[in-house]
Amino acid sequence: MDEKNTNRLEAFSDGVFAVAITLLVLNIKFSGLDSRGNLLDDQHLWNNLHDQWPLLVAYVTSFATIGIMWINHHRLFNHIKRTDTGLQLFNLLLLLLIVFIPFPTALLAQQYAVHPDQHLAAAIYSGTNTIMAICFNLLWRYASYHNRLLGKDTDPRSVQAINRQYLFGPLLYLISFGLAWINVPSSLILNLILALFFAVPGRPPRQLT
Amino acid sequence: MDEKNTNRLEAFSDGVFAVAITLLVLNIKFSGLDSRGNLLDDQHLWNNLHDQWPLLVAYVTSFATIGIMWINHHRLFNHIKRTDTGLQLFNLLLLLLIVFIPFPTALLAQQYAVHPDQHLAAAIYSGTNTIMAICFNLLWRYASYHNRLLGKDTDPRSVQAINRQYLFGPLLYLISFGLAWINVPSSLILNLILALFFAVPGRPPRQLT
Amino acid sequence: MDEKNTNRLEAFSDGVFAVAITLLVLNIKFSGLDSRGNLLDDQHLWNNLHDQWPLLVAYVTSFATIGIMWINHHRLFNHIKRTDTGLQLFNLLLLLLIVFIPFPTALLAQQYAVHPDQHLAAAIYSGTNTIMAICFNLLWRYASYHNRLLGKDTDPRSVQAINRQYLFGPLLYLISFGLAWINVPSSLILNLILALFFAVPGRPPRQLT
Amino acid sequence: MDEKNTNRLEAFSDGVFAVAITLLVLNIKFSGLDSRGNLLDDQHLWNNLHDQWPLLVAYVTSFATIGIMWINHHRLFNHIKRTDTGLQLFNLLLLLLIVFIPFPTALLAQQYAVHPDQHLAAAIYSGTNTIMAICFNLLWRYASYHNRLLGKDTDPRSVQAINRQYLFGPLLYLISFGLAWINVPSSLILNLILALFFAVPGRPPRQLT
What we know:
Four copies of one chain form a homotetramer.
Chain A: E1 4-5, H1 7-23, H2 42-50, H3 53-79, E2 82-83, H4 85-100, H5 102-114, H6 120-144, H7 156-182, H8 184-199
Helix pairs in contact in A: 1-3, 1-4, 3-5, 3-8, 4-6, 5-6, 6-7, 6-8, 7-8
């Protein structure tokens, strides 16, 4: 087996996260021109920008989502110290989903701003998050199984804290997927709570290093 | 608390800065074709390129702005040696604004070239810069509060020099925001002076390392 | 000769891989709008997404292809420890092909979904893969010739395992290129087998590090 | 003065080079569809691809140009070991040009394929290369002046070899700029020779490290 340190895997992943989070901005299309190519005056420019708030909401939401995924990835690789082909493949699967996430987010922002009674966009959004939570679990379970790829000095309590936190992720996202077909706002609120839940470490103030 | 070194945070931020600064070039649309898809001869090509100078000005200005933000980020992380979840979130907030900055810049270049009497684009530009200056302050105050995340060998005079320099940033940008509603050129000149002010270190020639 | 360590060459290559794999997402154009700019309801949105499955297949296939190329690049640079101008040029040639690979893949996905009887797209796809396999060989043979740029502690059996695995790559891809003109599905299956073959290390479980 | 090591400057520059070289691929627009959105059969697909060779030539040329610039940047930073604000600003200026280079290249490829008698595109191309050569000189002269930012163990003969090689760059590119107004092919050939000249190290086989 090729087991190596994780430097290049982290550098490559950071690159993918950085590009994915920056490409989000391409969805914002500010233009100071009207449809005939003439420049707008302040009044019309203001109206024009005002109409674009769903795109701005999608930008901020996607940015926060990918940012929180990066914080999680970072946290896992504090403990994962070696890599093999299996880990590389699970990591690629996770990155595939992270690069994809802006699409359901933009679709949701676009739809929900105008058709709050439609369920499909919210379901696709929650469904993508569910699959993402499963992929994070696969990566972590693969690496932490019998401490296979973890550092020798890993604190077992940190590993357990992550195990516990990650156990409920897919289940709760699956509930938000179900809710999307019944009541869209409550599904979105659950998604928001879950994002914040994954932004903070598993068992907060443990010890100072 | 997960406190770790800042290597991955810097690598991820460098990636975001690098992508954001390079994507600027996508706004330039040189084309050697006329609107019917025929190739232009030298005379018409020259006229065509000549009409695009606002885009070139926006490219150079945005590039310089993001570049100077990178120099500032670099300077802060000479002193910040550890990271925790709070710092990662403040850093993400800052990156969100840095990735966004090309939009107000392009809008301003487009508008100001033709409608120098309109105020909104200049106000949005100064306003974005004000929020950015506040975010830089939040990041720095969070990290330097009681030397929380600074290196042990940090020179307190360097920290104070940054503190002093950063104190005036948001105030002065707020003034440029006010000026944008009164007199656009003086607002732009103040923005330019502030950019140069933040490009140089807080208390210039201190000591050689 | 400028012989140096490979850190920057790996960082630059990781950056190119990361950008190339992330740009794939730009080919997906989800839109919740119909051709007149009105928002679609759930039923029409579903149909619209459903029609885009060739784009999704192309996204996943290209992502997997570039990901496996990254795993291979990573594996070679476990052994290559120094760099010179020749290696940099061979590496650039390889990156040129890797950045290009999404095009034949998208073309194939688009064509094969509708015209399974047409051969050209499959031939271009196999042909690009053949050239890529040759470039991987050039890079590796250049570096490993008389152990020129390999680490001093490289296991000769690992080098031989890579040599053996890489020997058959171009030949087998050339066969898939020939098959593309005769029978497209069998050519695609051979390409798939080859991708999986290159995803796993040369001589699987050798020893644990 | 903030003098620090060059790690982050190199990482940021590598990121910019990597994004710039990968974005080149966005100029290639393979499409298996005709202008009405129908899929092309093999015969028409072949014709369609065949018409796009100027785009492919521009892709390969720009990729080689940016790649060779990266090799040069890499070579200089083998010797440059510390950074200050001045170096960061000269480096940003250089990156501004490197990110810009695909435009004159694409313009030239587009024009020269159809209007070989027009001079402007070739002049813009040579002019951009001249400015780039000047920026490389500024960066290097700033860093190497009295060995200001070079490593302590830098071989003075390597520094002199780079000095000599860089002295002629701007002059020769200026000649190619002049030639563009007289005879386009000879200007292009001179540009090609210069690119190859800068791809190889200053004084080739010196010693093995």
